[in-house]
């Protein structure tokens, strides 16, 4: 890189950090980690997903420390995650074991187990609620009975219905005995599907959404129908060290999305292709965008940005984009001085100087040309 370290002095750097902390606190009462975890769970969900660490309270702390900047919070979580010891690995869990608090199917009106709208504003107007200025301490659902919600035994997966009819072409299954771990090993291209899904799951929400939207706008060939979207608690199971049985140790809140795409080219056996997305916490927008990108990448084409796996995976990582964009703020004195000297030298060879600038009434003067070759 053509930049150098800032040498303003340790005291000035410390003061800048103290000023940042002062602006975070402000003149109002400090927001607690518990408040962020409970009331701003969408922020913590984004930080956990992009940070690759399921830890709601730590994510809330990171969001607080980063003043709500989810990319910075995800950076903090990834840095902390790298210091943790890995003492075990969970066993593979079927997503159908999820205890769903929300389950909607845009593909079918009547599905086994029914539609569960859960907590959402999808069907209401987006209007500012000024009553929230003074706070809203009362829970409008305090007298509701939610004990039977989301029983996994009665929620048949929509894609299973298509599989039973032979209408769904599933992608090749990855080698589950030796899956890749993109948090420890760099992705090489062409990437396997398990690597693609891992990178999409940790991708920055805005980037995943934008690239997924690009193919819906016509810069690609995928416009899927969502089979269903679920939000709920997914069990985490490990092998018991003494009995060898799989035991549930905790649950993680996740969002899952599945989509189907008609493939008419296979005239001998037309089927639906399949796209999948899953992310930590309540983040339906990212899960759906991930689903679209998964389906697009499986086309193994480079005709559109969303279909190019290397382009997608190199673009959506929030830490990479965060670093490259924000490094532009750092000193680039050496490289800029070199460019400046070169432009001055070219102008001098061409006879251009300050007193020969082209004016509005000087139509005969030579117009400077931007962009020069190495031969100039």
Which strand-content bin applies to the residues? 5-15%
Rg from C-alpha positions? 26 Å
**SSE sequence, one letter per element:** HHHHHEHHHEEEHHHH
Number of domains: 2
* Biggest sheet overview: 4 strands, antiparallel
What is the oligomer described by this structure? Answer: single chain
How would you describe this protein?
The chain is an alpha+beta fold. The protein has two domains: 10-81, no CATH class; 95-118 and 148-316, no CATH class. Helices cover 35% and strands 13% of the residues. The protein contains twelve helices and four strands; from the N terminus they run αααααβαααβββαααα. The protein has helices at 10-25, 33-39, 41-51, 56-65, 70-81, 158-164, 193-201, 205-216, 284-297, 309-316, 318-326, 333-349; strands at residues 99-104, 225-239, 246-263, 271-280. It has a four-stranded antiparallel beta sheet with strand order 1-2-3-4. Strand 2 and strand 3 (246-263) form a beta hairpin. Helix 2 (33-39) packs across helix 3 (41-51) and helix 8 (205-216) packs across helix 9 (284-297). The longest helix is centred in the C-terminal third of the chain and has 17 residues, at 333-349. It is globular and about 80 Å long.
Summarize the structure.
With 376 residues, this protein is α+β, with helices and mostly antiparallel strands. The chain is 35% helix and 13% strand.
List the helices and strands and how they pair.
Elements: H1 10-25, H2 33-39, H3 41-51, H4 56-65, H5 70-81, E1 99-104, H6 158-164, H7 193-201, H8 205-216, E2 225-239, E3 246-263, E4 271-280, H9 284-297, H10 309-316, H11 318-326, H12 333-349
Antiparallel strand pairs: 1-2, 2-3, 3-4
């Amino acid at each position: 890189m053509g930049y150098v370290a800032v040498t303003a002095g340790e005291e000035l750097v410390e003061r800048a950090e103290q000023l940042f902390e002062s602006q975070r606190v402000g003149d109002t009462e400090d927001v607690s980690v518990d408040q962020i975890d409970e009331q701003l769970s969408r922020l913590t969900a984004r930080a956990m997903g992009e940070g690759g660490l399921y830890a709601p309270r730590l994510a809330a702390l990171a969001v607080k420390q980063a003043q709500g900047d989810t990319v910075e919070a995800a950076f903090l979580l990834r840095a902390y995650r790298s210091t943790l010891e890995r003492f075990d690995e969970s066993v593979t869990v079927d997503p159908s074991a999820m205890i769903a608090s929300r389950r909607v199917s845009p593909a079918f009106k009547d599905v086994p187990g029914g539609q569960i709208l859960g907590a959402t504003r999808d069907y209401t107007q987006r209007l500012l609620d000024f009553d929230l200025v003074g706070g809203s301490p009362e829970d409008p659902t305090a007298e509701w009975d939610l004990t039977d919600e989301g029983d996994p035994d009665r929620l048949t997966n929509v894609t299973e219905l298509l599989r039973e009819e032979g209408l769904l072409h599933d992608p090749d299954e990855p080698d589950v005995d030796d899956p890749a771990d993109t948090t420890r090993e760099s992705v090489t291209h062409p990437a396997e599907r398990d690597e693609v899904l891992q990178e999409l799951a940790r991708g920055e929400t805005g980037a995943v959404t934008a690239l997924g939207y690009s193919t819906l706008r016509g810069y690609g060939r995928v416009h899927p129908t969502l089979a269903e979207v679920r939000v709920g608690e997914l069990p985490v199971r490990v092998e018991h060290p003494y009995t060898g049985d799989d035991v549930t140790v905790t649950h993680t809140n996740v969002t899952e999305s599945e989509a189907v795409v008609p493939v008419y080219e296979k005239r001998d056996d037309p089927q639906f292709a399949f796209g999948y997305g899953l992310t930590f916490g309540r983040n339906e927008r990212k899960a759906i965008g991930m689903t679209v990108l998964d389906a697009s990448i499986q086309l193994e084409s480079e005709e559109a940005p969303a279909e190019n796996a290397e382009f997608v995976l190199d673009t959506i990582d929030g830490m990479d984009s965060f670093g490259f964009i924000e490094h532009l703020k750092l000193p680039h004195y050496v490289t800029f001085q070199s460019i400046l000297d070169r432009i001055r030298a070219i102008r001098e060879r061409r006879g251009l100087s300050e007193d020969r600038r082209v004016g509005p009434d000087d139509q005969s003067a030579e117009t400077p040309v931007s962009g020069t070759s190495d031969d100039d």
